[in-house]
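Exercise 7. Predict the structure of Alpha/beta hydrolase from Actinophytocola xanthii.
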Amino acid sequence: MMLPGTGSDDVFVRSVFEIPLAAVGVRTLAPAPTPGAELARAYLASLDQAAREAPLLVGGISFGAHLAAEWAVRNPRRCAGLLLALPAWLGDPGVAPAAVSARLSAAEVRARGVDGALAGVAADAPAWVSAELGRAWPRYGRELADSLELAAARPAPTEEQLRALDVPVGIAACTDDPIHPAGTAGAWAAALPRAVVRSTRLAVVGRDPESLGRAAVLAWLHAGGRPA
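Solution. The predicted structure, encoded as tokens:
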């Protein structure tokens, strides 16, 4: 099961992971966001439900990657591996670029509404990012700002917690992403006992979202993951 990032949705996470996972015999499950205060809890509950019958290969993008790892730390025997694209921080978010960006976006949404905030995104972000948020953000409606703030405040697993997680982990980084620094992906890999990092670039992801999923799946295979 793959979880989307902050302000993103199941549509984008499927576009990243569905075909790369199908290539190794894994069906992609991707829950839609439950906006507002229940956002993280609903995603974690979805993982609990899906893991009732057999261990899961879980993962996600950015905040979704954090939640997948958080769930795996709590449920190591129900986790068959992790696919983590663009992890944004370790432990407390502090002033991590992704956390700061989410807080600023939430403030813009509260001040200008969703449409006004999207106009600002269109002026500053790559066209494909603007298009994705233009599709996903309205789905959150009035709960968008709360959802962004919740994600920006939630701690990711710590290095100590990750060190205890003995499952194959594939991490995908973008070498040109200032919001999700490649160094953070490297720090996650250094903490995890069985992790490999593979990289792409944001410009490539804009043309080919599957490139991010392929990087994560390839890294997972190199870390010892087994195709279905």
